[in-house]
TrEMBL record:
Subcellular location as annotated: Nucleus
Example of a GO cellular component annotation carried by this entry: nucleus
GO terms (BP aspect): entrainment of circadian clock; positive regulation of circadian rhythm; rhythmic process
Swiss-Prot/TrEMBL keywords: Biological rhythms, Nucleus
Residue ranges constituting the Protein EARLY FLOWERING domain according to the UniProt record: 15-93
Main localization of the protein described in the UniProt heading: nucleus
Record Pfam families: Elf4
Stated name of the protein: Protein ELF4-LIKE 4
InterPro entries in the cross-refs: EARLY_FLOWERING_4, EARLY_FLOWERING_4_dom
Family: Belongs to the EARLY FLOWERING 4 family.
Highest taxon of source: Eukaryota
Species classification: Eukaryota, Viridiplantae, Streptophyta, Embryophyta, Tracheophyta
UniProt region (Disordered), positions on chain: 87-113
Organism: Cocos nucifera
Length: 113
């Protein structure tokens, strides 16, 4: 056993572990941003309800920050989607089936040769 994996397993298990760690890291980042967005939205609502001019002016910056956070979440999900697609492509040789873009599984046919 070397490097945290069994020597007979090869690089497949290490690659799968790395993919899972990447996904987990991204989901933690997304959740953190969404939590921050919840706080921003609460503050924006309070400022709006107060109708105090300074609070309403502050909302401009808060809404910009919220929009920026939303863009970051979209980018993270886009990166996750690309990573997932790449991991599925690289593991395609390991299985007899694949997933179509509509989410349905398709079995590959092998013709006798």
């Amino acid at each position: 056993m070397e490097g945290g994996t069994f020597s007979g397993v090869g690089n497949g298990a290490q690659a799968d572990n790395k993919i899972l760690q990447t996904f987990q890291k991204s989901f933690v980042q997304v959740q953190s941003i969404l939590d921050q967005n919840r706080l921003l939205i609460n503050e924006i609502n309070q400022n709006h309800e107060s109708k105090v001019p300074d609070n309403l002016s502050r909302n401009v910056g808060l809404i910009r920050e919220l929009n920026s956070n939303i863009r970051r979440v979209v980018d993270l999900y886009s990166d996750l989607s690309s990573s997932f697609a790449k991991s599925m492509e690289s593991s395609e040789g390991d299985s007899a089936g694949t997933i179509r873009s509509d989410g349905k599984a398709v079995q590959k046919r092998t013709r006798p040769g």
